């Protein structure tokens, strides 16, 4: 492999007590985060939660009202954008339409005054990296949307930043292209070793690509973790609700031992559930169970829950069974369709619902 494109130095970013006010509106409220070197890190949250503002502060386009931004331990809070070893790729990739592919990629290097020979070598490396060999002389306007986005990535990667910031870079692409660019971005991050900080409101995109995710809401970080932490162990209602489909159940804590609790459901059944390490549960709690972690079948005395089927949605690979539990709560079970045919349930059927010990998670109050 070519050491010039694989020479890895991803930067570590420390955000310490970051607050940002626009006039009287607080867009970012006391965010502290450590992004590790070489990590694919995603800021995920609904529109308006402050993720772009946070990214723009790392880039230097906005200054924090309070707090420090560190890169590899050094305070970069007061540096101008072009003084930071950080580059940004935007959604509307903003290529120069009158320049060729190679000239677009070379642009940042020219601005930095790099020698011509070096620029030529780096541009060729970058063309190879983004699979556009032989296309250097093409006008960028002759490329497809996906190819243009790859040129924008090559242009941003060419000066070897320690950190690449990506602000919803795939949202202008159609679904199929977006899926293939997700794999491409992941590959580019692994091959270059550059720390990627990716902004999206698309939870599936975040789960697919990230080493770790910070879920944001209203200017604050609600939870940081690997995709499976965030999905299987949501710490609070907002996170559980924002990521995937979820069933919420009310329960009472019976006992706690180590990292597991026994809880009693309204059906009277007792199950074991895990909980966030910093929030030992007591009294009444809310628990979550993902639809695919539950099973529906004929009701027995051992069933954890009982309910009546109120809707059946066939989705090709899966069937969603929407139930009304005896206490009036709604509950969804997602079953894989192992073989062709009907799922075996009809509207109005009374069913038993079961799930294995350990799949339920108690939420923080
Ligand atoms: P989106 O995905 O819609 O871009 P976001 O999570 O990235 O959402 P931000 O763009 O960071 O959100 O904006 C956070 C809040 O700050 C929003 O309510 C926005 O209107 C406000 N905001 C952002 N920039 C400014 C500005 N320059 N002046 C005033 N308010 C701003």
UniProtKB/TrEMBL annotation:
<dbReference type="GO" id="GO:0015594">
    <property type="term" value="F:ABC-type putrescine transporter activity"/>
</dbReference>
<dbReference type="InterPro" id="IPR013611">
    <property type="entry name" value="Transp-assoc_OB_typ2"/>
</dbReference>
<dbReference type="InterPro" id="IPR003593">
    <property type="entry name" value="AAA+_ATPase"/>
</dbReference>
<keyword id="KW-1278">Translocase</keyword>
<dbReference type="InterPro" id="IPR050093">
    <property type="entry name" value="ABC_SmlMolc_Importer"/>
</dbReference>
<keyword id="KW-0813">Transport</keyword>
<comment type="function">
    <text>Part of the ABC transporter complex PotABCD involved in spermidine/putrescine import. Responsible for energy coupling to the transport system.</text>
</comment>
<comment type="similarity">
    <text>Belongs to the ABC transporter superfamily. Spermidine/putrescine importer (TC 3.A.1.11.1) family.</text>
</comment>
<dbReference type="InterPro" id="IPR017871">
    <property type="entry name" value="ABC_transporter-like_CS"/>
</dbReference>
<dbReference type="GO" id="GO:0016887">
    <property type="term" value="F:ATP hydrolysis activity"/>
</dbReference>
<keyword id="KW-0067">ATP-binding</keyword>
<dbReference type="InterPro" id="IPR027417">
    <property type="entry name" value="P-loop_NTPase"/>
</dbReference>
<dbReference type="GO" id="GO:0043190">
    <property type="term" value="C:ATP-binding cassette (ABC) transporter complex"/>
</dbReference>
<dbReference type="InterPro" id="IPR012340">
    <property type="entry name" value="NA-bd_OB-fold"/>
</dbReference>
<comment type="subunit">
    <text>The complex is composed of two ATP-binding proteins (PotA), two transmembrane proteins (PotB and PotC) and a solute-binding protein (PotD).</text>
</comment>
<dbReference type="InterPro" id="IPR005893">
    <property type="entry name" value="PotA-like"/>
</dbReference>
<protein>
    <recommendedName>
        <fullName>Spermidine/putrescine import ATP-binding protein PotA</fullName>
        <ecNumber>7.6.2.11</ecNumber>
    </recommendedName>
</protein>
<keyword id="KW-0472">Membrane</keyword>
<dbReference type="GO" id="GO:0005524">
    <property type="term" value="F:ATP binding"/>
</dbReference>
<keyword id="KW-1003">Cell membrane</keyword>
<dbReference type="Pfam" id="PF00005">
    <property type="entry name" value="ABC_tran"/>
</dbReference>
<dbReference type="InterPro" id="IPR003439">
    <property type="entry name" value="ABC_transporter-like_ATP-bd"/>
</dbReference>
<dbReference type="InterPro" id="IPR008995">
    <property type="entry name" value="Mo/tungstate-bd_C_term_dom"/>
</dbReference>
<feature type="domain" description="ABC transporter">
    <location>
        <begin position="13"/>
        <end position="243"/>
    </location>
</feature>
<dbReference type="Pfam" id="PF08402">
    <property type="entry name" value="TOBE_2"/>
</dbReference>
<keyword id="KW-0547">Nucleotide-binding</keyword>
<dbReference type="InterPro" id="IPR017879">
    <property type="entry name" value="PotA_ATP-bd"/>
</dbReference>
